[in-house]
Amino acid sequence: MTDRTPGIDPKLLEILVCPLTKGPLTYDAEHQELISAKAQLAFPIRDGIPIMLVSEARPLGDNQPPT
After folding, report:
1. Predicted confidence (pLDDT) at residue 58 exceeds the cutoff of 90
2. Predicted local distance difference test score (pLDDT) of residue 52
3. Does residue 16 contact residue 34 with C-beta atoms inside 8 Å?
4. Would you state the pLDDT for residue 2?
5. Does residue 41 contact residue 26 with C-beta atoms inside 8 Å?
6. What is the pLDDT of residue 1?
7. Which 8-state DSSP code applies to residue 61?
8. Angle (CA) 64 21 5, round 5°
9. Is pLDDT of 17 > 50?
């Protein structure tokens, strides 16, 4: 076990795409989410594992947490 905060492997981020748009994702370390700008969705990362289900994604917009 390591003491560092769970993140995402950069190589994994290179191959993951948004399940709706098939577009690229960006990693938001502060909120532990993968962001699909095209779909306006944020996919959670739990225990270092991206949850790439649309039903689990948070819509971006007015309810987006402050940065």
Report:
1. yes
2. 96
3. yes
4. 43
5. no
6. 37
7. S
8. 50
9. yes
| Residue 50 tokens, joined | 């991206």
Angle at Cα 19 formed by Cα 9 and Cα 14, nearest 5°?
30
> Residue 49 — φ and ψ, nearest 5°?
-115, 120
1: tokens are 């076990």
> Residue ranges of the domains in the chain?
10-59
**CATH match for 10-59 among 3.40.190.170, 2.20.25.10, 3.10.580.10, 3.30.70.2470:** 2.20.25.10
Residue with tokens 């947490």: 65
Give long-range contacts, CB 8 A cutoff, 24+ apart: 6-10.
6/32, 6/45, 6/47, 6/48, 7/32, 7/45, 7/48, 8/34, 8/45, 8/48, 8/50
Ordered alpha helix ranges (H), 1-67: 10-15
Cα 6 to Cα 60: distance, rounded to the nearest angstrom? 22
